[in-house]
Amino acid sequence: MRTVNVSEITEQIKEMCIEANHYLSEDMKNALSESEKQEKSPLGKQILCQLQENLKIASEDMIPICQDTGMAVIFLEIGQDVHLEGGPLEDAVNEGVRQGYKEGYLRKSVVRDPIERENTKDNTPAVIHYEIVAGDRIRITVAPKGFGSENMSRVFMLKPADGIEGVKEAVLTAVRDAGPNACPPMVVGVGIGGTFEKCALMSKKALTREVGRHSDIPYVKELEEELLTKINQLGIGPGGLGGTTTAFAVNINTYPTHIAGLPVAVNICCHVNRHAVREI
Amino acid sequence: MEKQITAPISKETARTLKAGDYVYITGTIYTARDAAHKRMKETLEKGMELPLDLKGQMIYYMGPSPAREGRPIGSAGPTTASRMDKYAPELLDLGLGGMIGKGKRSKAVIDAIVRNDAVYLAAVGGAGALLSKCIKSSEVIAYDDLGTEAIRRLEVENFPVIVVVDSEGNNLYETAIQAYRTEDTTLC
Prior knowledge:
The complex is a heterodimer. Chain A is of the alpha/beta class. Chain A has helices at 6-22, 26-38, 42-61, 89-103, 147-150, 163-178, 196-206, 218-232; strands spanning 2-5, 71-79, 82-85, 127-133, 138-145, 154-158, 186-194, 247-257, 262-269, 276-279. Helices cover 40% and strands 25% of the residues of chain A. Chain A has a 4-stranded mixed sheet with strand order 4-2-5-10. In chain A, strands 6-9-7-8 form a 4-stranded mixed sheet. Chain A has a two-stranded parallel ribbon with strand order 1-3. The two termini of chain A are 14 Å apart. Chain B has one domain (2-180): fumarase. In chain B, strands 2-3-4-5-7 form a 5-stranded mixed β-barrel. The longest helix of chain B has 12 residues, at 34-45. The chains are: A alpha/beta, B alpha/beta. The interface between A and B is large, with 57 and 49 residues.
C-alpha cells in the first residue's frame, strides 16, 4: 500500500493543463512535419507550414496553441494499492484545473448548465474518467478537448449484420460530415463494441494513443490503415480547403459487445490533439 | 491570388474578392460569437440599437484566451461559423460586410452573402498563436459580462484569411475538395 496526498495530484494537473495547451507531443509534431512533405495541394502545404509556425510561437511566447483551450478531460488510472489522503480526489482534480487555467492564461470555456449557460469562469468542472488498475502507481492523462471537433463526433448503433463494412461507412460518414468544421488534419478516435457509453469512452481514449502506433489486433491494425487511406482520399485537406492530408491517424479501440449490437463511436480531434501524461 | 484589403470593407471591394483568394486584412474588425450573437438578436427583437453600426464591418467569430501582461490579446483563432448561421442573414441584411470564421455555412447564409455583396473568409483553425501576432490592439466595446464572448474591436495588420464564399456564391470548400478527392465512391 502506498499513500499519496491528493495535493500532489492537484499540482501535477495544474502543470499538465498548461503544458498540454502550449506544447504538442512529439508524435503530433512529427505527423505535422511529415504531412507537409507529402501534401499535394500548395495551399494545404502552406497551411501545414503555418500550423508548425503556430506551434513554435505557442511554445516560445507562451500563447496557447489554440484559443479553445478545451474542456479538461482527465483520465486517472489508479493502482488498487494506492491510498489517497488529504481530501476528496474529485475536488483535488478540479482544483488543479482551476489553478492551471488561471495561471496559464487559458480560456475558460465551461458553462455551469447546458441550457442556462452561465460561464463557471474557472473552466471547472473537468470531465474525469476513473479506472482502477493493478499496482501502486497513478497514471494521469490530461487531454483538453476543443469543441470544434467535438461537435462533429458521432455514435452509431449499428446492427451485427452491418459488419466491418458498416463500421467503415460510419467512420467515413462522420469524417466527411465534419469536413472543414473539425479543423483538419484530424486524429480520428474510434470505439467499436461494448455498450452505448463504453464505445464513446473508448473513442475518446483512442485519441490519446500516440500517432503512428497501431492496435495489437491484426485486423484492427489493418482497419486503421485502410480507413486512414480512405479518409485522406476524401480531398478535405488542411483547413478543409482541399488536399491529401485530412487525418494523421485513425486509432481504434475495441471491446466485447452484446449478441444484438455493434456500437461504433467516432470521436474527432483537430490537429491540436493535446494530451499530457504523467505517472506518480 | 494574393490581395490586400482594409476593413471596414465596401461592397465594391467585396465584389473583387473571389473564392480561393488569399487575403491580408488591415484595419478594424469586431469579434462576436455565440452568446454575443444571441444578445444582438434579442436587442433587434426589442427594437433597440446594436452596440455597433454594422455597415461594411467584418465580424470575426472568435473568443480569445486571456492576454498576458503587456500583450493585446491571447490566442485568437477562428471558431466554427455554422453556429452563427441562425443569426448571420439578418446581420448581413443590416449591412454587415464580411465574416471571418472556419467551416461550412448554410444556404441561407450564402444567399444573404450574394444578396448583399458580402464575403465569408476563413482563417486557419487552430492557429491561434500565429494569428494573435497580427492583432495590434483589442478593446471590449459591448457585453463585457460575457467574458471571452464579449464584442471586441480589434486593430489588425496583415491578418491572413482565405475567401471561401464570395459575393457570387462560389464556395471554395466544395470546389477545392473535389480537386483532391480520389475516394472510391462505390463504398458509401
